[in-house]
Write a structure and sequence with these properties.
The protein is α/β, with parallel strands linked by helices. The protein has 13 helices and twelve strands. The chain binds pyridoxal-5'-phosphate.
């Protein structure tokens, strides 16, 4: 079957906006353009009603009350408000924060900022599959610990963390639990009540909504959560995120959430996993010396991260330009530093430089997956044959001996 090129398999970096989402948004740019905070006329009421409907839609996807959803610009901002806001507000109780070595930079960097402000940050190690050990977390929580931040699903290797167990432990020990669910939303069922989650970051463009919109779930009720705002203004969004609400984007994110809720109830996620498994089975069958990074258990249904031994990921991506995928994390791929996630798994130097991330999405087809497998099966052996670094025994260089962080600035 003919496929349209290029093929998009980079759905962890971003997803296309679903045409149904766009359709829902359009009237809010033109006809219903009111400011949701203008409570004195019909334009404002209508905009506000749309914002509240979207809050309900997003809340329903994650088991939250609409009042617990705050709009932000994306998961980066949500993470910053959650981490900086909670730590600063709880400073008198303690100054210890726990996170994980494989988190996204949008968590690791605010944690580094907290260190500059005098907080102590522990970055938990992970096992070879990318999961934390609950015993490690339990051992690290002390009387001084105020906040734990563990991502729901990893953006490079798709590893799912045991959220419910972490939430239970944190609640028992009186520690606030934040999770970055940017990659997990819409791909796995999430329930903030059942999982004892206090704070959760969400991003619209990761689940077929528009870019530039995100949300932070902030639990209400006892035990009371207090956060300091990180910016100040008109006091919107429970005083935590001031600024005029981008109504069309909010409508889009709400609609995208409703579509994801339908998918979770149907067999769409199994279909996503089936396509991903077909990709992996095809690669394994047709190409020698390949290894999956992370674990196939506890993995996002759409993620595959593969090392092609002896082939630089950047060279492979050039050779398969018709396939949009990524080496390492697209969010940090401006640097050629080996992925901090793969290093944390204990993956050796060569495998980190030969790792390619594929992210299957709602709009991919079986024919596209088969085309990608065929293309890889053609290009990988060619690149291996051309690569002088592949014959260390015959005077070439062993990729494993290169000190990448020194040689690439
Ligand atoms: C796990 C994770 N957290 C946060 C972000 C940042 O999200 P946003 O683009 O909405 O700021 C990303 C984006 O790649 C991500 O994968």
């Amino acid at each position: 079957m003919a496929v349209a090129l290029p093929i998009y398999l980079d759905n962890h970096a971003t997803t296309p906006c679903d045409p149904r989402v766009l359709e829902a948004m359009v009237p809010y740019f033109t006809e219903h353009f009111g400011n949701a905070a203008s409570r004195s006329h019909a334009f404002g009421y209508r905009a506000n009603a749309a914002v509240e409907k979207a809050r309900t839609q997003l809340g329903q996807l994650v088991g939250a009350d609409p009042k617990e959803i705050l709009w932000t610009s994306g998961a980066t901002e949500s993470n910053n408000i959650a981490l900086l806001g909670t730590a600063r507000a709880r400073r008198k109780r303690g100054t210890h924060v726990i996170t994980v070595a494989t988190e996204h930079k949008a968590v690791l960097d605010p944690c580094s900022q907290l260190e500059k402000e005098g907080f102590r940050v522990t970055r938990l190690p992970v096992d070879a599959g990318g999961r934390i050990r609950l015993e490690d977390l339990e051992d690290e929580i002390g009387p001084d610990t105020i906040l734990v931040s563990v991502m729901a699903a990893n953006n490079e290797i798709g590893t799912l963390q045991p959220l419910a167990e972490i939430g239970h432990l944190c609640r028992e020990r009186g520690v606030v639990f934040h999770t970055d669910a940017a990659q997990a939303t819409g791909k796995i069922p999430l329930d903030v009540q059942e999982m004892h989650i206090d704070l959760m970051s969400l991003s619209g463009h990761k689940f077929y909504g528009p870019k530039g919109i995100g949300a932070l779930y902030v639990r209400r009720g006892r035990p009371w959560l207090k956060l300091d705002p990180v910016m100040y203004g008109g006091g919107h969004e429970r005083g935590l995120r001031s600024g005029t609400l981008p109504v069309p984007l909010i409508v889009g994110m709400g609609h995208a959430a409703a579509l994801c809720a339908e998918e979770i109830d149907s067999n769409a996620l199994q279909e996503l996993a089936r396509l991903r498994d077909r990709l992996w089975a095809g690669i394994r069958e047709r190409i020698t010396d390949v290894a999956v990074n992370g674990t196939m258990d506890h993995r996002l249904p759409n993620n595959l991260n593969v090392s092609f031994h002896g082939v630089e990921a950047e060279a492979l991506m050039m050779a398969i330009r018709e396939v949009a995928c990524s080496s390492g994390s697209a969010c940090t791929s401006a640097t050629l530093e080996p992925s901090h996630v793969l290093r944390a798994l204990g993956v050796d130097g060569e495998a980190t430089h030969t790792a390619v991330r594929f992210g299957v999405g709602r709009f991919n087809t079986e024919a596209e997956i088969d085309w990608v497998v065929n293309h890889l099966a053609e290009k990988v052996p060619m690149l291996r044959a051309m690569n002088p670094l592949n014959e260390p025994g015959e005077g070439g260089t062993d990729l494993r001996t290169i000190r990448w962080s020194d040689s690439l600035s």
